[in-house]
Amino acid sequence: MTIDDDQKFQVLLTQLQERYCASHNMRERSTQFALWISGMAIGLAWLLISQPGMTLMQRIALTLLIGALSVGSFIFMKGLQKGFNNNRKAMIACEKSLELYETGVYLKECPLLPDAYAQNSHRWSDHFNTLIVWLSIVILSLVILTWTCPQAPAENLQTIQTQEQKER
Fold first, then answer.
1. DSSP label at 39?
2. Cα(31)–Cα(59) distance, rounded to whole angstroms?
3. What is the DSSP letter of 52?
4. CB 136 within 8 A of CB 105
5. Contact, 95 vs 16, CB < 8 A?
6. pTM here?
7. Cα–Cα dist 3/70, whole Å
8. Smaller CB count within 10 Å for the chain: N or C?
9. What is the DSSP track for 132-156?
């Protein structure tokens, strides 16, 4: 099977559109996930602040839960980041094949896309690294809050639990 230049051009355009769409979807998915985790953290922080205190075992259990959610969140984000970077490489390959970085092909005096767009270098301030830093701050805040909330003495917990049962 032979493919002529027009068909190759159409394949490249279609592929580039798919890569752009996938890129936007991955960014949106990662942002929504970070917002969802942040919302859970705000709810948990509210519970920690509004409750009278926790036992040592409750603090340990909550810390383990926060740790498990953290590991899962980082694995999810790193997976999205890896997919995003691979998608970006495919995008750059399509753009180069379409000569979007060449002067005079589409515009007389400059390329259609600047050379910086063809770089796939990682910066500390890129989208995924920023979300990972944000999640790290949220996680650290929850752990600190878990361990700095006043601890209720055993007899106070007994009284509080009895009062809660009477109110029901």
1. H
2. 29
3. S
4. no
5. yes
6. 0.80
7. 49
8. N
9. HHHHHHHHHHHHHHHHHSPPPPHHH
Structure tokens given for 116? 């910086």
Cβ distance 128 to 31 under 8 Å? no
Structure tokens at 87: 């998608």
For residue 46, what are its two tokens? Answer: 């509210």
SS3 of 56-101: HHHHHHHHHHHHHHHHHHHHHHHHHHHHHHHHHHHHHHHHHHCCCC
DSSP secondary structure code for residue 4 in this structure: -
Three-state DSSP class for residue 122 = coil
Q: How high is the mean pLDDT in each 10-residue block of the chain (168 residues)?
A: 89 96 97 96 89 85 95 96 95 95 92 89 84 96 88 56 69
pLDDT in tens, 40-81: 999 999 888 887 778 889 899 999 999 999 999 999 999 999
Amino acid at 48: L
Alpha-carbon distance 136 to 15, whole Å? Answer: 35
Task: Give dist(CA 100, CA 119) in Å, integer.
Answer: 13
Question: Six-digit token pair at 166?
Answer: 């009477």
DSSP state of 151: P
CA distance 23 to 4: 29
